[in-house]
Structure formats: structure tokens, C-alpha cells
Write a structure and sequence with these properties.
By secondary structure, the chain is an alpha+beta fold. The protein has a single domain, classed as Electron Transport, Fmn-binding Protein, Chain A (Pnp Oxidase, Chain A, Roll). It contains five helices and nine strands; from the N terminus they run H-E-E-E-E-H-E-E-H-H-H-E-E-E. A hairpin with a 4-residue loop joins strand 5 and strand 6. The longest helix has 17 residues. The chain starts with 6 loop residues before the first helix and ends with a strand. The structure holds flavin mononucleotide.
């Protein structure tokens, strides 16, 4: 039996990759593609930073600007997450339900624990996607090239949103010279998993 012939071990492996992706900037899983569909049925895909993966809760956490179009698109909607690890030749395709949280205690803690530099982008004057008269970072001129103080960052809090993905399925594909392997795990099946054709 090959090491990747064990369904529970592959599910655990997928979560190990996701947890590492949340913690390790160098992991390709740190910047997955998050795909969603808008109210017109049009697909949208964008790279986002995976902040944390929680295997026990089967959730992924990401951060975004509360004013961005995707916040309105995503809340309560199906979402897909895509990551590929070239070194391991593993593709993870995840589906789930998106939840936007902006103002509970957990979000407050996350905000307070972020660095001032990380929080600075939420000082942007206009919602992401707003047309601008010329090239610009979107930040107010007074904060360009500087780290904001705790006082200056205060107003940015209103623009901070957390995106939680409640994972409902993980499609794990391993490419190997000895033969590919693919398995799909679903919450509806109590994560038991099944082999599918690669
Ligand atoms: C490496 C990388 C990391 C990014 N991380 C985030 C992120 O964590 N949150 C976010 O909202 N946008 C992030 N973006 C920007 C998005 O890809 C996207 O351009 C922006 O959020 C606007 O998307 P929307 O129009 O779908 O709302 C990142 C882009 C790159 C290239």
C-alpha cells in the first residue's frame, strides 16, 4: 500500500497543509485563490491571504475590506478555494459557505493583534474597485510610507472584515509518477472520503 492510499491520512494531510498555509508565508497555501459567483451568476476569482485554518471547526479565516464588492457577494454564499503545492504536487480544491463577521469580540481581538502596518491598508479612502483619477495606492497622503500610530489607525477599524469559510468539501489530488491519486471528503459524509478518478 502506498502512503497516499489511506483516506483518513490524506484528509489529515490536507488539513496539515491548510494549517501550515495559515501560519507560513512561504507556503503556497498561504495565498489561495478564492472564487465566488455574483448576483448575476458571473464568476470572480481572486488571491487572498489565508490567515488561519482550524481543522476541528473545519473553517478557514481570511481578512478583507468590508467595503469591497466581494463582501456583499460572499456572505452566506457558496465559495471555492484553490491551492496548489508544486513541491508536493498536491492540488486542494475546497468548497464551503462564506460568512462575513465584522464586529464581534473575536474580530476585535484579531484586529488588535494585527500589526499597525497590516492595519494600514484599511485606511484606504475609497472602497476597493473605485475608479481613481490616476495611479494611487488609495491611501491618504499623510500615511504614505509610514506606520500609523494606534490613534491614527482607529477609523480604519470600520473597514475591516473577516471572511470565514465553513468547509463542506475537500477535493485532494496528488500527482505522482507512480500514478495519480484523488479523493473527495465531504462534511455530509462525516468526512469519510471516497476515491475518485484523478
Ligand atoms: C498575494 C496577494 C494577496 C492578497 N491578499 C488579499 C487579502 O488577504 N484580502 C483581500 O481582500 N484581498 C487580497 N488581495 C487582493 C485581491 O486579490 C483583490 O484584488 C481585491 O481583494 C479586490 O477583490 P474583489 O474585487 O473581488 O473584492 C491579495 C492579492 C494578492 C496578489
Amino acid at each position: 500500500m502506498r502512503p497516499d492510499d489511506d483516506l483518513p491520512a490524506m484528509l489529515a494531510h490536507a488539513w496539515t497543509l491548510l494549517v501550515r498555509g495559515g501560519a507560513d508565508r512561504k507556503s503556497p497555501v498561504h495565498t489561495p485563490v478564492i472564487a465566488s459567483v455574483d448576483e448575476h451568476g458571473l464568476p470572480h476569482a481572486r488571491v487572498m491571504v489565508l490567515r488561519k485554518a482550524d481543522p476541528a471547526a473545519a473553517t478557514l479565516r481570511l481578512h478583507t475590506d468590508a467595503r469591497s464588492p466581494k463582501v456583499a457577494q460572499l456572505n452566506g454564499m457558496p465559495v471555492a478555494v484553490l491551492a496548489y503545492l508544486p513541491a508536493e504536487q498536491v492540488q486542494l480544491r475546497i468548497t464551503g459557505t462564506a460568512r462575513i463577521l465584522t464586529d464581534d469580540e473575536v474580530v476585535e481581538d484579531i484586529w488588535n493583534q494585527s500589526t499597525l502596518f497590516a492595519r494600514r491598508c484599511y485606511l484606504a479612502e475609497h472602497p476597493p474597485g473605485t475608479p481613481l483619477p490616476g495611479p494611487s495606492t488609495g491611501l491618504p497622503a499623510w500615511i504614505e510610507g509610514q506606520q500609523p500610530t494606534a490613534e491614527q489607525i482607529g477609523p480604519a477599524r470600520a473597514n475591516f472584515a473577516t471572511l470565514w469559510i465553513e468547509v463542506t468539501a475537500i477535493d485532494w489530488l496528488h500527482l505522482a509518477n507512480s500514478g495519480h491519486r484523488r479523493a473527495v471528503f465531504r462534511s455530509t459524509n462525516d468526512w469519510a472520503g471516497e476515491w475518485v478518478a484523478p
